[in-house]
């Protein structure tokens, strides 16, 4: 029970952080309050919604537990209030997004893991949970989705962190420490990409002469 409570709280924290990143992104586009809350909502809950649809989990998690909706909207509203009085740091959006990616990707993977799916599917579902909300946010705000930007290690960080989590569980490490190490790996890779501009190699097709 204690472990389930911790995982639930981490999941909620991921919703909060992603909602904050969505609200910050909407604020930069000068949306009205409703627009900000919509972007906060889809950023926080979009990935988990697609995951549940793909896994045929009914009802979708935030319909079954409306507290997720309340937390996402509250976090978005509090972000608006905070930024009205204080200017957030330049990289606040990227850092918030990195935190949300770490928290939500592992929790999404654990849902797929609980369904006893193949490890590859677990990685894909966890990555989907972590990145899709940000993709929807960027599309709605007419931005190049962060997952497609060359200068960002994003989905790769989620894949590596989830894979590490599964490997650690396989070798006998308890769920709690494995979860923490997976999240730290995702967060660390994402922040390293932000700070040092790490990126995957670019594929270029050159004309043959």
Short précis:
It comes from Leptolyngbya iicbica LK. The chain is mainly α.
What would you say this structure looks like, in words?
This protein has 209 residues and is mainly α. It has one domain. It has helices at 2-28, 33-54, 61-64, 67-85, 92-114, 119-140, 155-170, 175-196. α1 (2-28) crosses α2 (33-54), α6 packs antiparallel against α7 and α7 (155-170) runs antiparallel to α8. The longest helix has 27 residues, at 2-28. It is globular, with a radius of gyration of 17 Å. The mean pLDDT is 91. It is a multi-pass membrane protein. Belongs to the UPF0126 family. Its main location: membrane. Residues 9-82, 95-169 form the Glycine transporter domain.
Tell me the major beta sheet. Answer: none
Query: Would you tell me the structural class of the helices and strands?
Result: mainly alpha
Percentage of residues in helical conformation? over 70%
Number of helical regions? 8
Report the count of strand segments: 0
Whole-number total of structural domains: 1
Question: What's the overall average pLDDT, rounded?
Answer: 91
Contiguous runs where pLDDT drops below 50 for at least 5 residues: none
